[in-house]
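In the design runs reported in the main text, the only information available to the sequence generator was the tokenized backbone. The following block is the verbatim input for one such run; it is reproduced so that readers can re-run the procedure and compare outputs position by position.
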């Protein structure tokens, strides 16, 4: 091996290795799915080809070059195989017989390489290095390689046309990686003795930038990485350092070829001059990171984040106002319509006792509906401050369930209570507000089990929190509706205004807790409430 014979083919191979090995590690350590593992081996195969290219390019021994080709060429074969396999996993069209075929052909050609049938010899080309010279098996492997790659891109383009909008950018990034394959195709030509320099190796350097972009921006392969400034800084320093040493080697070799010097002092001087050019770039690394990766200086980013936070808060306020206004208009319209209709008939029905009786009953009922709605809206929009005191949670739940006992009997609902035997769980809470929250959940459960069922209530302590589980065997909630159950005015019931669970969520959050919901249609619904706990003093 002779580094003084460093040439474009060797340089491209070294750059490929530097570009693809970190990408291989990035994918492999951040996701262990089948797709990411197979795709990481695709990336690894390209990195291995890069290493092979480097050693082939700097080698002056025909025998050693022949050995390197026998190691490097299989990497090229498996680049296509792992790519097509990744595409098949991505589009969910993995077929055992197809996988056997694509892997089988690669191992068959690997056998021909080992037995010196693929390329019997090498040829010194471009006045630089030895390139393999292919046989009929080489032509067959080239055609197969093109077929496998083309099949992968055909399936990928077809899949891209039908995916959701948010996936299109990821798939488009994979499609654009064909630039690397196009460049790699040119690397086959010297194997036929064609005197076209394999500059296509440099095109293989394009895909890692595309893949890295869709990983960081679109979370390709479900990889979600937060870019830290220190990491980006280190990467850029490494790249600049690598370019610095590469420039020294290339420039020194160039001068040796022109001048023919062999002076140590001159070599050190050249390194010093190149260092003067490269090392000041370190002073601009922070600026590059801020401007390119983080879109501004640290102070600008802080101000922008604060501004965006204020905009989000304002948007949420306007959204809440919009929801409340829409809900009020919808819920008040029906009772007002009924009152208006009766009021229009009243002058003509003054002597009709039955009409007056209905008028009094219905108008009274509708006014009560409006009054209840206004009360719930006030509770939702402007809740009163919590009146905190020590509360026995078990007693509070027992009293709330006892209040609803007649409804449980009416609807043939069995209530199971299971409280943690370890301690009487106590909280610092507003008993009335919590009772209201639990009532809303229990009433929802009753409505879901109007033909009977079982309500299971359990309380347990998890570390420093109290967990309350309320599970019914009712109709359940559709998966598409689960995300909306806590939204104001969202309801699937024929009655009610859809504020109960919104108020419940607000009460739980005001107590420093959280509420979750799980449900399966036809099986039932489970609400899980977690609240900060307080052990009873002994």
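Verbatim output:
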């Amino acid at each position: 091996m002779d580094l003084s014979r460093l040439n474009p083919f060797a340089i491209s191979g070294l750059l490929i290795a530097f570009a693809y090995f970190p990408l291989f590690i990035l994918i492999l350590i951040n996701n262990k799915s089948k797709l990411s593992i197979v795709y990481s081996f695709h990336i690894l195969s390209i990195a291995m080809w890069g290493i092979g290219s480097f050693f082939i390019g700097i080698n002056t021994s025909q025998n050693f070059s022949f050995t390197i080709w026998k190691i490097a060429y299989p990497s090229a074969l498996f680049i296509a195989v792992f790519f097509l396999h990744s595409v098949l996993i991505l589009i969910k069209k993995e077929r055992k017989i197809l996988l056997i075929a694509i892997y089988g052909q690669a191992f068959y050609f690997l056998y021909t390489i080992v037995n010196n049938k693929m390329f019997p010899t090498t040829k010194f080309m471009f006045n630089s290095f030895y390139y393999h010279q292919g046989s009929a098996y080489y032509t067959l492997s080239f055609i197969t390689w093109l077929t496998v790659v083309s099949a992968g891109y055909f399936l990928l383009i077809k899949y891209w046309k039908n995916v959701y909008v948010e996936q299109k950018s990821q798939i488009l990034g994979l499609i654009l990686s064909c630039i690397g394959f196009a460049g790699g195709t040119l690397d086959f030509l010297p194997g036929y003795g064609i005197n076209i320099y394999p500059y296509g190796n440099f095109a293989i350097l394009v895909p890692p930038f595309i893949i890295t972009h869709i990983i960081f921006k679109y979370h390709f392969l479900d990889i979600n990485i937060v870019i830290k400034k220190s990491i980006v800084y280190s990467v850029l320093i490494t790249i600049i350092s690598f370019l610095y040493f590469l420039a020294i080697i290339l420039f020194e070799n160039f001068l040796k070829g022109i001048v023919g010097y062999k002076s140590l002092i001159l070599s050190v001087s050249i390194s010093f001059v190149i260092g003067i050019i490269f090392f000041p770039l370190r002073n601009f690394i922070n600026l590059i990171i801020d401007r390119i990766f983080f879109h501004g200086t640290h102070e600008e980013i802080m101000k922008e984040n604060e501004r965006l936070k204020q905009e989000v808060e304002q948007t949420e306020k306007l959204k809440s106002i919009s929801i409340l206004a829409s809900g009020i208009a919808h819920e008040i319209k029906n009772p007002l319509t009924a009152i208006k209709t009766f009021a229009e008939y009243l002058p003509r029905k003054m002597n009709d006792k039955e009409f007056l009786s209905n008028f009094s009953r219905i108008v009274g009922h509708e006014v009560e509906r409006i009054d209840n709605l206004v009360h719930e809206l006030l509770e939702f929009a402007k809740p009163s401050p919590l009146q905190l005191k020590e509360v026995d949670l078990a007693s509070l739940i027992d009293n709330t369930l006892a209040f609803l006992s007649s409804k449980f009997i009416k609807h043939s609902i069995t209530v199971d209570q299971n409280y943690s035997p370890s301690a009487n769980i106590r909280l610092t809470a507003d008993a009335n507000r919590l009772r209201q929250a639990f009532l809303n959940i229990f009433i929802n459960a009753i409505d879901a089990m109007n033909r009977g069922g079982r309500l299971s209530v359990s309380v347990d302590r998890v570390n420093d929190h109290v967990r309350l589980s309320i599970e019914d065997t009712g109709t359940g909630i559709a998966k598409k509706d689960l995300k909306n159950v806590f939204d104001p005015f969202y309801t699937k019931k024929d009655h009610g205004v859809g504020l109960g669970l919104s108020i419940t969520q607000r009460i739980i959050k005001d107590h420093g807790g959280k509420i979750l919901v799980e449900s399966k249609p036809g099986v039932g619904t489970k609400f899980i409430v977690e609240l900060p706990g307080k052990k009873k003093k002994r």
